[in-house]
Specification:
The chain folds into three domains: about 30-90, Carbohydrate-binding module superfamily 5/12 (Seminal Fluid Protein  PDC-109 (Domain B), Ribbon); about 95-155 and about 230-285, Orthogonal Bundle (Lysozyme); about 160-220, Endochitinase, domain 2, CATH 3.30.20. It has ten helices and three strands. The chain has helices at about 1-15, 95-105, 115-120, 130-150, 195-205, 215, 220-230, 240-245, 250-265, 270-285, and strands at about 50-55, 55-60, 75-80. The relative contact order is 0.10. Keywords: Disulfide bond, Hydrolase, Plant defense, Signal. This is Chitinase.
Length: about 300
């Protein structure tokens, strides 16, 4: 009784002073994230279900039989546990989702921003090495080459189907278990050949030799293969794209590592110029200079 009188008196004093406070306990609305289960493949989800996936939360926009939250924004969208309309990217990627959408206004819905950020954990040094300028230059360089390889993130698979049977090297001890024509170009850097699927899969802990279709069916897997090539492979060049950008060798060397055998040294100057122009545009979107050594 005494406690009730004291609270009433204090409320009167505070109201007289123009202060609005709640002295009675109130239960805050529970967030769906508090009870959100881990996403499980094969589980049926209905619109409105919230799940946890790779440390982030997603809400089902449409009913689906357990599709990965990073496959398509038709089925899933990132969910903000605080109610702010889109959860912040926990990866700290130097490219925001708005900037990504500006770079790829006509992209295929398969190439999700969330798929890209989910893939970053595979190569934590990517766009995370050196100064803020260098980090943004590397992101711009990677995305510019990706844009060139996929027509602006439109194509998921290689368009020339006549090439499909050519990408099997039966001289490898593991052969082509998925089939003669299974190792065509897929993903943001158009991964091709059985030996590249084997190497990328081994590095990422994913069996891509037996199931190369995962690269065209799962956004995060596709992005991981692109990051694998960018961070670890020199191709016809002398260094990886990552090394070229963080050491100051320049954008031209990233072209050489991806398609230098056909484009560099006068091979196809129009294609080189296309890559350079896109890189300059993306660097401008991120607010950094393109730097030197742009051509190969």
């Amino acid at each position: 009784m005494l406690r009730t009188r004291l609270m009433a008196l204090l409320t009167t004093v505070l109201m007289a002073a123009g202060l609005a406070v709640a002295l009675t306990p109130s239960a805050s609305a529970a967030s769906p994230c508090d009870t959100a289960p881990e996403w499980r493949q094969g589980t049926w989800y209905t619109a409105g279900n919230v799940v946890r996936y790779n440390g982030s939360y997603y809400i089902a926009e449409h009913d689906n039989p357990g599709y990965s939250p990073t496959i398509s924004t038709w089925y899933w969208d990132p969910y903000d546990c605080g109610g702010g309309g889109g959860n912040p990217d926990p990866s700290g990627f130097v490219v925001s989702e708005a900037q990504f959408n500006r770079m790829f206004p006509n992209r295929n819905s398969f190439y999700t921003y969330s798929g890209l950020t989910a893939a970053l954990a595979a190569y934590p040094g990517f766009a995370n090495t050196g100064s803020d300028t260098v980090r943004k230059q590397e992101a711009a360089a990677f995305l510019a080459n990706v844009s060139h390889e996929t027509g602006g993130l439109v194509h998921i698979v290689e368009q020339n189907t006549a090439n499909y049977p050519h990408y099997c090297d039966w001289g490898r001890p593991y052969g082509c278990p998925a089939g003669q024509a299974a190792y065509y170009g897929r993903g943001p850097i158009q991964l091709s050949w059985n030996f590249n699927y084997k190497a990328a899969g081994d590095a990422l802990g994913i069996d891509l030799l037996n199931n190369p279709w995962r690269v065209q069916n799962e956004s995060a897997v596709a992005w991981k293969t692109g990051l694998w090539y960018w961070n670890t492979q020199s191709g016809p060049g002398t260094m990886s794209g990552h090394t070229a950008m963080v050491t100051g060798a320049g954008f031209g060397q990233t072209i050489r590592s991806i398609n230098g055998a056909l484009e560099c040294d006068g091979g196809n100057p129009a294609q080189v110029q296309s890559r350079v122009t896109t890189y300059q545009q993306f660097a401008q979107v991120l607010g950094v200079p393109a730097g030197g050594n742009l051509y190969c």
